[in-house]
Write a structure and sequence with these properties.
CATH topology of the largest domain: Tumour Suppressor Smad4
Number of strands: 16
Oligomer: single chain
Strand content: 35-45%
Structural class: alpha+beta
CATH architecture of the largest domain: Sandwich
Number of domains: 2
Helix content: 25-40%
CATH class of the largest domain: Mainly Beta
Number of helices: 9
Shape: globular
Length: 314
């Protein structure tokens, strides 16, 4: 069973590219000699249960065929089980979604044949994961993530983008479209930020990211200094800024140079706590998935996920 792969396919990923392209992907897997079982997800969060079931059946190689959201679900399945130490599960990715933000860190190609070649070569890296606690309908919930969590404007844009995806109208430019549309309705959030038990910021913000890797939103480098295996969260906080300044600096999000602006502060830490400074709760997204409301507590899960990648993220 050790060399047999369990392939979790999201048929809805990439405007149903997961379903449309599966025959092509399957043929490529067979062509290079993979022995595998596959299954299609049927609903949101189904991949959490599928990955858990795969591990209980003895699988230690899982391939995600989908987007960053499907990957996040599989990571949650891996980290929520206790049958096998999580670093013993090798996780490969065939990107079918629109963003492929996490895969950029490891040089994972959006070309199916190249992505499959990367998995075949089986070059592995052990990265950290994060766990965030939040509230949904008044109840405390938690979620693991391996890329970036966003608060404030970032969470609003993710929420609007995810609604478009649910209606079948998401696409490569949906995040960028909602970056501009969201400006029309966004109001600055007020929060208190504690890092490793010390208050580091209190006031109004435009947006904020907490994460382990560099990219989100279709290639934006929101955490340009992030290292996914150093045991620390990277945090980027954009303080209250004019909407005109936001628009004129969007291009600087793609190379990370926006962190030099006076409105931007960066931090690192192992434990991050965020509270709304007024009665209006803050929104949250993690790995592009819209979650719940503040207060938030982030905990580091060091060296917990085994990644099959093309290149070192360093």
């Amino acid at each position: 069973m050790d060399q047999k792969y369990y392939v979790i396919v999201n048929p809805n990923a990439g405007k149903r590219k997961g379903e449309k392209d599966w025959n092509q992907i399957s043929a490529l897997l067979t062509e290079v000699g993979f022995e595998y079982e596959y299954v299609f997800t049927q609903a949101k969060n189904h991949a959490i249960h599928l990955s858990f079931d795969a591990i209980s059946k003895g699988y230690k190689h899982i391939i995600v065929t989908g987007g960053d959201g499907t990957l996040n679900e599989v990571v949650n399945g891996i980290l929520s089980q206790e049958l096998v130490p999580s670093p013993e599960i090798k996780l490969g990715m065939i990107p079918v979604g629109t963003g492929n933000d996490w895969g950029r860190m490891y040089g994972i190609s959006k070309n199916y044949a190249e992505a499959i070649h990367t998995i075949k070569e089986s070059k592995t890296f052990i990265q950290d994961a994060g766990k965030v606690e939040y509230y949904e309908n008044g109840k405390k919930q938690s979620r693991y993530f391996i890329n970036i969590a966003g608060i404030g404007y970032d969470a609003l844009v993710a929420k609007k983008t995810n609604k478009m995806k649910e209606k079948g109208s998401g696409g490569p430019f949906s995040y960028l479209i909602n970056l501009f549309l969201g400006l029309l309705q966004y109001k600055f959030a007020s929060l208190t930020l504690n890092i490793d038990g010390e208050e580091r910021f209190r006031g109004k913000i435009f947006s904020m990211c907490v994460g382990l890797c560099k990219y989100n939103g279709g290639g934006m480098m929101q955490l340009p200094n992030a290292i996914p295996d150093n045991g620390l969260f990277d945090i980027t906080l954009i303080k209250k800024a004019s909407k005109f300044k936001v628009i004129t600096n969007i291009k600087n999000l793609y190379d990370g140079s926006f962190v030099s602006l006076k409105e931007v502060e960066t931090y690192t830490g192992k434990k991050v706590e965020i509270y709304a400074s007024n009665s209006k709760p803050l929104l949250l997204e993690a790995d592009g998935e819209s979650l719940g409301e503040s207060p938030f507590s982030f905990e580091m899960i060091p060296k917990s996920i085994c990644i099959i990648g093309e290149k070192s993220p360093a």
